[in-house]
Amino acid sequence: MKKIGLIGGTFNPIHNGHLYIASEAMEKLKLQEIIFMPAGNPPHKRNKDILDANIRSEMVNLAVRDYSGFTLCDYEVNKEGYSYTYETLKYLKSIYEDIEIYFITGADCLVDIFTWKNVEEILKLSHFVVFNRPGYPLEDLLVQKEKVERYYNKEIIFLNLLQMDISSTDIRNRIKNNSHYRFFVPDNVYSFIEKLELYR
């Protein structure tokens, strides 16, 4: 059975922190592939200014194409309507014959998991993997992890990673304020942003 990691997000833009998380997850969980899934129309960010999905997808493609085992899937970008995780997991199960999916997400998602759609199905279709993020105390996360595990009777995998305080929001703000940001994103993504004058 092939072990696949799934990392979704708006990737607005993708940055080096995303690649670090994927690399650590691949090593620690012994995964054979990491799929990056840019969100097309995420329901939890309906009122936010998000760059066109195809442009975000192209940035992800530029970021991951030179890394062995990292792949881009544009299912959610091409999907009509809102993108829900349980639907994405069902889709991946339908196109891969024999896979075990590890859904990799941040601490903020663990905190908000009770607001997600069809959580039981998500936990049935995948191993739920959470990594820590700046601003979320470790003790609080472990308490929430136990709470979720008891409620759904399902184990949550926790990755205690080196905290890299890089965010897409900060990068966008730096670009708007003409501050340096090139060391936060892959070189080819930096060139793409500069060429198209994104986030100006």
TrEMBL record:
Pathway assigned to this chain's UniProt record: Cofactor biosynthesis; NAD(+) biosynthesis; deamido-NAD(+) from nicotinate D-ribonucleotide: step 1/1
EC number(s) given by UniProt: 2.7.7.18
Entry superkingdom: Bacteria
Catalysed reactions listed for this entry: nicotinate beta-D-ribonucleotide + ATP + H(+) = deamido-NAD(+) + diphosphate
The Cytidyltransferase-like domain, residue ranges: 6-174
MF GO annotations: ATP binding; nicotinate-nucleotide adenylyltransferase activity
GO biological process, one term: NAD+ biosynthetic process
InterPro entries from the UniProt entry: Cyt_trans-like, NadD/NMNAT, Rossmann-like_a/b/a_fold
UniProt keyword Nucleotide-binding present: yes
One Pfam family here: CTP_transf_like
Keyword terms of this UniProt record: ATP-binding, NAD, Nucleotide-binding, Nucleotidyltransferase, Pyridine nucleotide biosynthesis, Transferase
Record family assignment: Belongs to the NadD family.
Task performed by this protein: Catalyzes the reversible adenylation of nicotinate mononucleotide (NaMN) to nicotinic acid adenine dinucleotide (NaAD).
PANTHER family attached to this UniProt entry: NICOTINATE-NUCLEOTIDE ADENYLYLTRANSFERASE-RELATED, PHOSPHOPANTETHEINE ADENYLYLTRANSFERASE
Name of this chain's protein: Probable nicotinate-nucleotide adenylyltransferase
Species whose genome carries this gene: Clostridium amylolyticum
